Amino acid sequence: MPDFPTLIDNETVLWEGQPDTKLRFGLETMATGLFAAALILACLGLATVINRSIPGSFWAIFAPGVVVAAIVVLFVPWMDSRKRGRTAYRLTNKRAIIQVGTANQSYALPKPEALVLRDGTPPTVTFARLPGNRRVSFERISDGVQVHDMMRDLVETPT
Fold first, then answer.
1. Does residue 158 have a cis peptide bond before it, meaning omega lies within 30 degrees of 0?
2. The pTM of the whole model exceeds 0.85
3. 77, 20 in Cβ contact below 8 A?
4. Tens digits of per-residue pLDDT, 105-125?
5. Among residues 110, 117, 157, which one has the least CA distance to residue 141?
6. In sequence order, what DSSP letters do the residues of 80-109 get, joined into one string?
7. 3-state DSSP call for residue 130?
């Protein structure tokens, strides 16, 4: 397990976990997929036109376009998966801790209305918002429902 920050007085670890690292294809992938499809169509048209002038050049023009399109579509989900692979979560009776690589970020327990369980496979527990409306969450955790219930119990009956 990662090297989490030292616990403070009367703090106990209630849960530790990591996000699911499977590749996730969402709206961002669909948007890059549209770009990739446009790139493939442009390369197809360009390769067809140039192939008429220079016979045999079709694949030299079309193939790199297909490769670049595939890389564009797969790069974002792959990088997201790698980041989640370097991420670890810890919930204590006083705070939530998120570690990405060697950087730790600690968040006070939320107000009950800030705690949100987002359905998914696996679910995500959101417990804070940063400037710019960026969510702070235990993302894609297999025991998300249990962690959400545990956090809800903690914030409704503070220690």
1. no
2. no
3. no
4. 999 998 888 899 998 889 999
5. 117
6. HHHHHHTEEEEEESSEEEEEETTEEEEEEP
7. strand
